[in-house]
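Title: Request for sanity check on LD-carboxypeptidase prediction

Description:
We are preparing a figure and want to confirm that the structure record we downloaded matches what your pipeline produces today. Could someone re-run it with the sequence below and paste the raw structure tokens into this thread? We only need the token string, no images.
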Amino acid sequence: MIARRAALGLMGGLAGAALMPVAATARTPRKPSRLRQGDTVGLVAPASAVTVPYELDRAIHWIRGMGLVPKIGRHVADQDGYLAGRDIDRAADIDAMFADPEVRTLFAVRGGWGGARILPLLDWASIRANPKLLIGYSDTTALHLAIAARAGFPTLHAPNAASRWEAASWESLWHIAFAGAMPVLGGEEVERASGRVARILVPGSTRGRLLGGNLTILSTLMGTGWLPAFDGAILFLEDIGEEPYRVDRMLQHLKLAGVFDRVNGVVFGQCTRCTSPDPDYAGFLLDDVIDRHLAGLDKPVIADFNTGHVTNQLTLPINVPVELDSASRTLRMLEPAVG
């Protein structure tokens, strides 16, 4: 699979179709429906090809284990280079699942790279008219943020269908998507179970809509018109396989774009394998980079939160109001993500 940073140049051909700025996040009068045992859910592959042996079988296994019925997109098994089929076909699968009245929710089978390529090809009128949860993470960030901008309903940053669905991921998904609850996400108990303790960079509490996801994808979309407005939001970020200087570059991009000035708070999650491969490396470490960019902000900030390319990551509700409390290292939902 091609590395995402090696494919960023492909965005140039799409950006021209998406130059219209989004002045404010779109709103919709309806929220996605909550999930129930026995619901049919759509499996789509918006990005990289599903080529790992048994990857689709594993996705089906997890979905059935949740008590749901998987409906596989027509082009999920396609391959066009490193992509899961042609852009137009991957977009058609997503459009079909949103338009299908039998499908309650969409799961991305995997991430990788390619979701941003299909944004101009999607039927946004149909998506707005049929609000459904989209569940996934990593490259699925492109779809999460575009839906927040163009359709206005919540989606869920959670493991992809073929990822490992362990206790914290499943339990937080159940509370948010099935029970329609407003759980407190993170905190000491979750940290103890995962072995990952968040750091308080700037103390305090604040409220705002939760927006964000994968730092590489978010940085790639800056200036394209496919992002929601970040004014008053709680921004969360995560990534994988990026050396510290690349994380520095992307955070500087967000800073120069004014994102950190506009948000009410920041949650930096896990950056897995974000180290230099050079054994003689003597530059900044990842925590140095994060602290230099975020510790001086005049708003609540925590780092090392339990989201990203890690086992037992929490399910997070995108485009839903939350309260960030640095002291307890938690995000508390202020309204349900589903209706």
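Thanks, this matches our download. The chain has one domain: 4-333.
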